[in-house]
Amino acid sequence: MELKKLLEGVEIKRIIGSVSKEIQGIAYHSSQVERGFLFAALRGLETDGHYYIGKAIEKGAEAILLEEGPEISASTLIYVPNSRQALAKVSSNFYGNPSSTLTLIGITGTNGKTTTTYLLEAILKKAGFDVGVLGTINYRFKGKVFPSTNTTPESLDLQRILWEMSREGVSHAIMEVSSHGLILDRVFDCQFDCALFTNFSPEHLDFHKSLDHYFEGKKRLFSTLLVKSQKRKKFAVINEDDPKAREIIDGVKVPTLRYGLHPSCEISADQIESTFEGLRFRLKTPKGELFLHSRLIGDFNLYNIMASAAVGIGMEIPLERIQEGIESVEGIPGRFEKVENPKGIHLIVDYAHTHDALERALKGLTNILKNIPEKGKVITVFGCGGDRDRTKRPFMGEVAGRYSDLTIITSDNPRTEDPLAIIQEVEKGLVSLPIERWSLGRLNSWRLKKGYLKIPDRREAIRVAIRLAQPHDTILIAGKGHEDYQIIGKQRFPFDDRIEAQKALEES
């Protein structure tokens, strides 16, 4: 594509060199530059792409997008105020603005994004649409599945995937839109048909530094991207029960559907039964009522179901197709996923890695167990990731200790931090509770008094939990969910909570 055409719509401060040249491709890593490419110098979290402009030119870059730097005659220099937004726009131009040809649904919020994408995918498929998904677990369309590098890909990769989806006949694309993706302008220039807000709670404060900054990132999907979208029938879907809902709604000047448990919401639910077999409830919508049975476990999943149904209502999908889609979803990888076993225990693996998500999971279990005559003890195994938000660690410890009979603190992707130091910070949330600190050598009476254990080796922590469990007990292994690796230092090692639990069950 001619560089001049590629730059249409890009905010430019000045250009040095010719724009009448053909660009063969785009790269934002200098190692991926080929002859005839445009290189975008991005300021990253660990390094700055401006340091690699010389390397990109050596490899044959014909044009450079940059925010600042010396004048270099070997290549056309396009100085822009924001190279991330510029990359997003040129990427969209290069791939023919693919989001304009797709029905694009963006889902943001602290929790529930992944589960909602699976539910909505099922609804849209039952309605006869060809669906693609970009999310935390993977990117998938037309029977192809690709590993997810980021929940929301970098803008160049995102536009390429959307182009591939459109080219292969996908009609609807569902995207988890992370706060990183919003703040770092990865979805800049995407034309959204629908934006969905699930909820808001503290997370990613290692990146955002403040809750206000984090929320402003989430809000951008609605107040900026959805409002500016060129789609004719665009609309928003908002969780009315979340304390931040009103701030989102007030900033969105498009039709809005609200969901929640309050009867005033357009989509609401009542007559709720929550068991280890799933959820039964009545769903009330502007188009009528449905009596649903979902195999998803935990009453928090009620919100994910209402959210996906609300999008279906907004897209005028028949109620029968909405019901068929919801009831066809048997489970979500690593999201309150049951591990079947002959031991008679309820064994759950979940991705909960914030104190809010962990509390939702444990509250969900509590609500199920209160209706079971033969209920045992609750054992929670979890850790906190290293090199990430440290403020949540004691809160997660406190939540686990409050709702569990036995809490086992362990490692969860310690990365470059000392696992014992992380565990010590988690422990601060437990020591204020009236519970016992147990050791492996003194566990005979743990069933008589609530307490906690520290076992840094995650594999051993899972083994101990399963070895201690008796019939009717419940074990929640939280934090990693679908992940099949453990990050120690800078290396990834194979590790899957579900597989480790199965091995431990075979040994017990």
Question: Helix proportion of residues, in percent?
Answer: 25-40%
> What is the structural class?
alpha/beta
Compute the number of helices: 16
Q: What portion of residues belong to β-strands?
A: 15-25%
What is the CATH superfamily classification of the largest domain? Mur-like, catalytic domain
Order of strands across the widest beta sheet?
Answer: 9-8-7-10-6-11-12-13
Q: Could you give a short account of the major beta sheet?
A: 8 strands, mixed
**How many structural domains?**
3
Which blocks of ≥5 consecutive residues have pLDDT under 50?
Answer: none
Number of strands: 25
Structure commentary:
The chain is an alpha/beta fold. It has 3 domains: 3-94, 3-Layer(aba) Sandwich (Udp-n-acetylmuramoylalanyl-d-glutamate--2,6- Diaminopimelate Ligase, Chain: A, domain 1); 98-328, UDP-N-acetylmuramoyl-L-alanine:D-glutamate ligase (3-Layer(aba) Sandwich); 337-507, Protein-Tyrosine Phosphatase, Chain A (Alpha-Beta Complex). It has 16 helices and 25 strands. The radius of gyration is 24 Å and the shape is globular. Strand 15 and strand 16 form a beta hairpin. Helix 10 packs antiparallel against helix 11 (319-328) and helix 15 crosses helix 16 (497-507).
